[in-house]
Amino acid sequence: MLGIFNGELLILSYPQIHRFSQAISEQCPFCGQTETLPHVYVRCDFFKMLLAWFSFVFDFPAFIFGPSGRFNFSTTILIHFFLAQAKLAIYKTRKSKIQNDLYSTDHVLEMFKALCVSGVKLEFCCCSEVQLFEKQWCVRDAFCKIAEDEKEQVPGWHGRWEGKASATLSLRNLSFHINTSDMLASHNYWHWSLYLMDEGDYENVLNMYDKEIQPRFTHSGGMLDIVDACSLLYRLEIAGVDVSNRWLQLAKVCSSHYGDRVLVFNDLHLLMAALGAHDKGAQKLISGMEEAGQSSAEQASFYNSPGVPLAHAMVAHSCGQHEDVAAILSKLYASFGVVGGSGPQRDVFNLIFIKSLLKSEKLKDSSLARRLINVRLALRPTSKLNQRLFAAL
Is the pLDDT confidence value at 334 over 70? Predict the structure, then answer.
């Protein structure tokens, strides 16, 4: 997961943002040079003190995607973790500089160290076995080690992590760490909500949506916050949960993006809100996606397939036309990956497919549902969601 996160944590350079807003300068906020992604991560003089820490990194691809073929598995994962924290430190330092935030350090190396320490502390508290933590994080004791008198305790509840200094951390503090995680706060709550949904604790999922996710997408208007909210409400409805009028407020925020045509992934999530709110913008979205599929746009082929057919399947799903959904998605199932997003994010499309197969009256659809659910159970046998799907066969 860390390797994937490391590859996904990319921030837009100013020239990219400049394409959407002419008010944004194309210059680096630190050195004044024209900014590019390589400049942001490896060429700006301001960040060279951080890059020097990674003595094995000499080029842009290695810093973005991490090392390959030169280290054992545990060491590679640890390096990916450091790279991810380095990128987050760069992002937060840039943000502090742009906003003239006097309460945040602009020393990127100190921020990087703090992020590494807090991240590994949290991993220690969430780890179920001491030996597993040592194998993954205490590689040659180069970065950290567990104090001998703490090895008999259960890290999943509490424990002392020993680096340069000992410290304690309780899972009760998890909310504080999420609240202060800046742009990923809502996404972290989304992941937490997925766990609660797997447990079938829908009441607390709705509470988390109302208290943590909804206020954030309303305030930020950020697309990551929006797609998380759309996905969560859509999953709840697939599970048969009444989300009341929550779609209406979400659709109001989404409506300003109906004409964006930036990513297929984004448009499909915006469509969830439009369909949930019975918004006429749903047809505008689908028409725009169809036009994009026939254009010379960068994402044209992805809009053409699986984007547009998947959008039509979602419309059919909202109308209860389960056989139609099954017929469309049985041809697209293998290509869900090109929609974009992570595996957990794309799983909402798998759930649409499986639920429609289960509700279809066709024997072949029931047979395919059984096969897909058995695969899910084989991969995650302890998942209560997968167990509920199996029980519905």
Answer: yes
Q: How many CB atoms lie within 10 A of CB 155?
A: 22
Domain stop point among 132, 160, 177: 177
Q: Is residue 252 located within the same domain as residue 358? A: yes
SS3 162: strand
Domain, as residue range, for 375: 183-391
User: What DSSP designation does 168 have?
Assistant: E
Closest CA relative to residue 78, chosen from 54, 61, 60: 54
107: its two tokens: 């020393």
Q: ∠ CA(17), CA(29), CA(226), 5° rounding?
A: 35
The total number of structural domains in the chain stands at 2
In this structure, the answer to whether residues 204 and 303 fall within a common structural domain is yes
The predicted model scores a pTM of: 0.62
Under DSSP, is residue 146 helix (H, G, I), strand (E, B) or coil? strand
d(CA 70, CA 212): 42
Question: In this predicted model, what pLDDT tens digit does every residue of 274-293 receive, in sequence order?
Answer: 999 999 999 999 999 999 99
Q: Are residues 265 and 346 in the same domain?
A: yes
pLDDT digits (tens, 9 = 90+) for 262-273: 899 999 999 999
Q: Which residues fall within 8 angstroms of residue 239, CB to CB, at 6 or more apart?
A: 197, 202
For residues 247-279, one letter each, b for 16 or more C-beta atoms within 10 angstroms of the residue's C-beta and e for the rest, the string is beebbebbbebbeebebbbbbbbbbbbbbbbeb
- Check: CB of residue 269 under 8 Å from CB of residue 349: no
